[in-house]
Fold this sequence. Notes:
Blueprint: H1 3-8, H2 16-19, H3 25-32, E1 39-40, H4 53-71, H5 81-93, E2 103-106, H6 108-120, E3 126-131, H7 135-142, E4 147-154, E5 157-158, H8 160-169, E6 172-177, H9 191-203, E7 207-211, E8 235-239, E9 251-254, H10 257-271, H11 276-288, H12 291-316, E10 322-323, E11 331-335, H13 342-351, E12 354-355, E13 357-358, E14 371-375, H14 381-400
Parallel strand pairs: 1-12, 3-4, 3-6, 6-7, 7-8
Antiparallel strand pairs: 2-9, 4-5, 8-9, 10-11, 11-14, 13-14
Bound molecules: pyridoxal-5'-phosphate.
Amino acid sequence: MSKMQENTGNQYKFAQRMSNTPRSFVREILKVTENPEIISFAGGLPNPQSFPVGPISTSVSEVLEESGSEALQYSTTEGYTPLRKYIAERYSSQGLNVNEDEILITNGSQQCLDLVGKVFLDKGDTVLLEKPTYLAAIQAFSLYEVQFKSVRLLEDGVDIDEMENMLSTENIKLFYAVTNFQNPTGITYSNNKRKKLAKLMRDYDTILIEDNPYGEIRFMGSSIPPVKSYLDEGILFGSFSKIVSPGMRLGWIVAREKVMEKLIIAKQASDLHSNYFTQRIVYQYLNTNPVDEHIQKIRNLYKKQRNLMIKMIEEHFPPQVKYTQPEGGMFLWVTLPEGTSSLELFDRAIEENVAFVPGQAFFAEGNGENTMRLNFTNSDDKGIEEGIKRLGNVIKERLSQN
Ligand SMILES: Cc1ncc(COP(=O)(O)O)c(C=O)c1O
């Protein structure tokens, strides 16, 4: 084949990095669940009932009327300053002292993962993940051709002894953690664990990436300060996706000035700045509405859904099945007896028109065949009742065959 044919034929010369980066397994599953007959606990979607459609509509009109031509213009990479100030002040009122110069507005917290990859990760670096971890973090970091190690999650956060062992024997560049109501497990780090983690990161000179899109959605217990409050050099992500709207795609990174300089360069090269019009709308919304009341409504709604799902699990799942009982967020995590394949169970569940995410997708180094993630925020009461009943039957049927 001549050189010219090669380039125009179906053999594209894709970059090496693409060969190690799979499509998102969850997104593939979501295609199966598009069938409206299916009760889906698979997605990671906030409940659309929680979206402030009316107030956002008013905010759009206000922004356009008050400063339309400015709001439609290009803007700075860092983001709209009043919005950054708002975020900084909210942190300060919660006990974490940061100023607006330490905040960069991003295209959702998903972009934070990519920017951190651009700024810190070289080919062959080792990234430490929780076991299991947020699937799209594996995907985002994979593009930087890194290696993954992972450390076990216990009920109160990562296994600190195992982690120390790893940090002392491996050359680990950064550790990525979802410290509140983790996706996929729903687990939250205790305060004690946070302090220990901060010390380890400092002792072993490892970068901490603390991803916190669910922190405000605590519907039980009391809130715990971010690890960053014990580790000033830590990097923290936040998001408006779960408290305002995911479709508006706004998140942020909190980092020290030295890191911020690099992140800004990476973001400039990537997209110049996040959608300025949307930033203006969200700021207008936050500034003219009782946001805490709105967040409290989301918490009440999700608490009800979580409680119903747990009640149904108690009634319909066999007693050998274990599950987490999250104090916030959107997911709970189910562990089936050893040797039970949740992938096989998935196919059977789909026949019964119910879907979940088989857990192994969340393990960067394999394992987790007997686990699954259930989302409780995007089904109505009837869906939760009926879906968990069906899932319980499928699990019982499978276990009776063992
Ligand atoms: C742990 C975690 N990080 C980041 C994201 C991305 O959120 P967004 O980009 O909408 O802020 C999600 C979304 O589900 C998530 O669960």
